Amino acid sequence: MPQPYVPLHDLEPPNLALLALEFRAFWEFGAVLPAWPVLQRAPKCDATGDGTHVIVFPGLSAGDISTVPLRKYLDGLGYVTTGWGQGLNLGPRSGVLDAAQHQIRQVYEATGRKVSLVGWSLGGIYAREMAKLLPDMVHCVITLGTPFAGSPKSTNAWRIYELATGRNTDIEHTHYDLPMAPASVPTSSIYSRSDGIVAWQGSIQANCKVNPHTENIEVFASHVGIGLNPSAWWAVADRLAQQKESWQPFVAPKLMGLHNIVYPRSVHSVKRSAT
């Protein structure tokens, strides 16, 4: 069973039972087809507002092919999506963050509109950090199973991260203020208490003094499958359609009485020191 909230300094990676449940990712993607009629009823892109263009950042050791299903879905809702275009995500190597900034600037300057950023796991770290660097160019940030609030060792992927990047996670963590939300940019964290890779508490955004437009949206998903999960797709579409001046916290759609199961809870704030 997913564990209750515990202080972050005591946070441990998900247990072996939850890790074993990661195999359900195949089922999650398979659920897209029967859920398709409902997914088509999600809020559509507002072609006259900001956020029409969406950049999706993949997770650790994954590339743009992993985000194709989500991007195709969003394309069908009227968005113009693109991957990050840097091959496999092997961590913030030299030039990676500079290239991400350049990509955002290019889209913003070409369209004159703010860009939406979506990040899966480690990709969500990039999305959040880019929004901190370029707040005037970013419409919103949506993360999927991103461990921004926990310690480096609160995931079952930290050894893979060190192997893939050649970097020490403890030292890497000191370079950024990851728990701090991007100032003035609406930020949504989509997470799952049954995540088998990332401790779910590490994906919870605390109260933020510099940004009242932050929220945490719970779905029932695996870590490997959260970016292919129909409930996560709906939440992403719903959040992308929000405009900053009329932003409202996520409200689960009424799905034949199943909304409390599909979206167990949404946490708009937690009692933790604000940053």
Overview of the molecule:
With 275 residues, this protein is an alpha/beta fold. The protein has a single domain (8-267), classed as Rossmann fold. The protein is 31% helix and 12% strand. The chain has ten helices and seven strands. It has helices at 16-20, 25-30, 32-39, 68-76, 96-111, 122-133, 158-165, 169-173, 230-240, 259-262; strands at 53-57, 80-83, 115-120, 138-144, 187-191, 214-218, 266-267. Strands 2-1-3-4-5-6-7 form a seven-stranded mixed β-sheet, with helices on both faces. The longest helix has 16 residues, at 96-111. The protein is globular, with a radius of gyration of 17 Å.
Attribute tags:
275 residues, Rossmann fold, 7 strands, globular, disordered N terminus
Quick take:
This protein is α/β, with parallel strands linked by helices and 275 residues long.
Let me know the average pLDDT.
88
Going by helix content, strand content and strand pairing, the class is alpha/beta
CATH fold name: Rossmann fold
The CATH C-level class name: Alpha Beta
- Described by its quaternary structure, the protein is single chain
Uncertain residue segments: 1-7, 269-275
Helix percent band:
25-40%
